[in-house]
């Protein structure tokens, strides 16, 4: 998915300020995001993985612009998915330890 310049800037800001740390999951598809510049908290809703359906209660989003709050939720969800996958991989590695390297020629077809 190609991002517009505004969307790119929102993701860059969210990454630069570690926006995923400002995200609290309330329930499936509903998140709270703390403002980076005030005591405000915004509600972001949406379930699509890349954020196409995400909405935010901040002024920028209400006026139709991409905000970093929505980008932060996408990053937080991707980070959580990566952490789940890493834990699953570690669990499998612990259950099925590999003693040394296995060459492709040693594996049965």
Can you tag this structure with a few keywords?
single chain, 109 residues, alpha+beta, four-stranded antiparallel sheet
Commentary on this structure:
- The protein has 109 residues and is of the alpha+beta class.
- The chain has one domain.
- Helix content is 40%, strand content 16%.
- The protein is built from 3 helices and 4 strands.
- It has helices at 5-16, 59-62, 68-95, and strands at residues 23-27, 30-34, 41-45, 55-56.
- Strands 1-2-3-4 form a 4-stranded antiparallel β-sheet.
- Strand 1 and strand 2 form a beta hairpin.
- Helix 1 packs across helix 3.
- The radius of gyration is 19 Å and the shape is elongated.
Derived from helix and strand composition plus strand pairing, the structural class reads alpha+beta
Order of helices and strands: HEEEEHH
How much strand?
15-25%
N-to-C span: 37 Å
Overview in brief:
By secondary structure, the chain is of the alpha+beta class.
Secondary-structure blueprint:
Blueprint: H1 5-16, E1 23-27, E2 30-34, E3 41-45, E4 55-56, H2 59-62, H3 68-95
Antiparallel strand pairs: 1-2, 2-3, 3-4
Helix pairs in contact: 1-3
């Amino acid at each position: 998915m190609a991002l517009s310049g505004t969307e790119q800037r929102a993701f860059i800001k969210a990454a630069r300020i570690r926006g995923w740390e400002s995200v609290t999951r309330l329930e499936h598809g509903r998140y709270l995001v703390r403002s980076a510049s005030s005591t405000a908290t915004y509600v972001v809703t949406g379930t699509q993985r890349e954020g196409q359906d995400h909405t935010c209660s901040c002024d920028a989003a209400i006026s139709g612009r991409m905000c970093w709050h929505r980008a932060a939720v996408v990053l937080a969800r991707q980070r959580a998915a990566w952490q789940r996958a890493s834990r699953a991989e570690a669990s499998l590695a612990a259950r099925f330890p590999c003693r040394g390297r296995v060459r492709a020629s040693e594996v049965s077809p």
